[in-house]
Amino acid sequence: MDAGGEKSYDDINVTPMVDLYLVLLLIFIIMTTAGVTGTKVDLPRASNKPADLGAPKSKAITVNNEGKIFLDTIPVSLQELEQKLREHQAKNPEFPVVIRGDRQVQYAGVMEVLDVCGRLGLTKIGLATVGPK
Question: 84: closest CA among 69, 98, 71?
Fold first, then answer.
C-alpha cells in the first residue's frame, strides 16, 4: 500500500476482456453460418417412378496382392477380362476404366491389364492411388 493509504493497481484483470472477445466470436460464428443457408428456390417435383440407370458406365479392374484380377469385384482371368471389356465396349464405346493395383502386386500384373486395355483401344484409363498421409 502507498503511504497515503491508497491501493496500488499493478495487476490488470483481463477476464472481462476475454469474455467480450468470446461473445464477439460467438456472434461472428452464428452470423456466418446463418448466411450460408443459400438462396430459396422452388424446386421441381420428381416422379415416384425409380430411374433406370442401367449398367454402370465405368469399369473397375482390381489386381490384388496375390495377382488375381477382378472386374467390378468378380474374379476373372486375363482372357475373360478382355472378353467382358469387349462386350461392354460394344454397348458403350467410350467408357472409362479405373485400374486398382495392390502395392504388393508385381508390376507385371498391372502391365498385363494395361496391355489388355491397349489392345481394345481404351483411352480413358485411370490408376487409383491413395493420397499422401
Answer: 71
Would you list the domain boundaries of the chain?
59-127
Contact 76, 70 (CB under 8 A): yes
Q: Apex CA 72: angle with CA 70 and CA 76, to 5°?
A: 30
CA-nearest of 78, 90, 91 to 117 is: 78
pLDDT (tens digit per residue) in 50-98: 655 555 578 888 888 888 888 888 888 888 988 988 888 888 878 888 8
For the chain, give the longest Cα–Cα distance: 102
Domain 59-127 has CATH 3.30.420.270: yes
Contact by Cβ (8 Å): 99, 126: yes
Q: Which of 121, 80, 116 is closest to 99 using CA atoms?
A: 116
Report d(CA 112, CA 60) in Å as an integer. 15
What is the Cα–Cα distance from 109 to 126, expressed in whole angstroms?
A: 16
Determine the Cα–Cα distance for residues 100 and 1; give it in Å rounded to an integer.
78
